[in-house]
Design brief:
Blueprint (H helix, E strand, L loop, with lengths): L8 E3 L2 E3 L9 E5 L5 H10 L5 E5 L11 H17 L4 E4 L2 H7 L2 H8 L5 E4 L1 H11 L4 E6 L1 H6 L1 H9 L4 E6 L3 H6 L6 H17 L3 E5 L7 H8 L4 E3 L1 H15 L12 E5 L3 H12 L6 E3 L4 H4 L1
Parallel strand pairs: 3-4, 3-5, 4-11, 5-6, 7-8, 7-9, 9-10, 11-12
Antiparallel strand pairs: 1-2
Helix pairs in contact: 1-11, 2-3, 2-4, 5-7, 5-11, 9-10
């Protein structure tokens, strides 16, 4: 009998968490194609593992959503991944991580699953603190991420002496999501976002949205070659590897794993734009339907 995400296993009146299998895929989700930059790093760093990616493109962007909305969205996407038997969930979206990373593991456990949930904010912050030379770090992120204070908490927890300059970039993600060529107007928009970081003298900048690596070359030019850019993908791979080792969930496979895609919006558009982010063949992208209540 197949169990859905709302079913639990009980033993003498107590819920028993169902342990995943090492051969199961790793689940990754984001608000759109941006999280494919994270998936790319995971595919390169953990090539034997299977992955299932969900892009919630029907509700893109997440950056201007409220925290309660983001927690609800994260729960709904986690349910989709759990129904398909994932062994680990990576919240590749910085906005969703900032608002839902404390809530989502509780939700997963309440459903009866012993599945770890990892977000990108903590690993990215730790990497930035390790890389900075002058103790001045910048963050470029969505409005929702900046408002949450998640990076400020994570960076200062790693080093309370670091000076953090945070800049909300409400329009930067759209540049990459549409797949349109970068225009002079886009350059001026990015220049305005980078100005406070240059004024603060930062030597390390966290790209606090998975869509931003698409404009990484532009940001590097505007910030200068002396500034190190820290992305979610490079930061999360080691954390995922540690989690799999700790839980004895690393796949026994020695050959290349498989990867597949679901999206809540237009599957053909997702595949067309997503291939440039993934830098690997996309294959088929399947549409997954959200309820009308969930779409709001």
């Amino acid at each position: 009998m197949r169990r859905g995400p709302g079913d639990r296993v009980w033993d003498h009146g107590e819920p028993v968490l169902r342990a995943p299998q090492p051969t199961a895929p790793i689940g990754v989700f984001d608000s759109g194609v941006g999280g494919l930059t994270v998936l790319h790093e995971l595919l390169v760093g953990l090539p034997q593992e299977d992955f299932l990616y969900v892009g919630d493109s029907a509700r893109f962007p997440y950056g201007d959503r409220s925290a309660p909305q983001l927690r609800s969205f994260a729960r709904q996407i986690a349910d989709i991944l759990l129904e398909r038997g994932v062994k680990l969930i990576v919240v590749a979206c910085n906005s969703a991580t900032s608002s839902a990373i404390d809530d989502l593991p509780l939700h997963v456990a309440e459903l009866g699953y012993a599945v770890d949930v990892l977000g990108v904010v903590g690993p990215e912050s730790n990497l930035a603190v390790a890389q900075t030379r002058n103790g001045r770090i910048g963050v470029l992120a969505t409005s929702a991420t900046i408002a949450s204070g998640a990076y400020e908490r994570a960076v200062l927890a790693a080093d309370p002496l670091v000076r953090l300059t945070s800049v909300a970039c409400p329009q930067l993600a759209q540049i990459s999501q549409t797949g349109a060529p970068i225009t002079e107007q886009d350059v001026e928009l990015a220049r305005g976002y980078c100005a406070p970081l240059r004024a603060a003298g930062v030597d390390t900048v966290i790209l606090g949205c998975t869509h931003y690596p698409f404009v990484g070359a532009l940001l590097q030019r505007l910030l200068g070659p002396q500034v190190a850019l820290v992305t979610s993908g490079t930061a999360i791979v080691r954390r995922v590897g540690h989690a799999l080792a700790l839980r004895d969930l690393a796949t026994p496979r020695t050959s290349e794993g498989r990867y597949s895609f679901l999206c809540t919006g237009d599957a053909s558009a997702f595949a067309e734009i997503g291939s440039r982010f993934l830098q690997l063949p996309m294959g088929t992208v399947d549409h997954v339907e959200l309820t009308q209540e969930a779409i709001a």
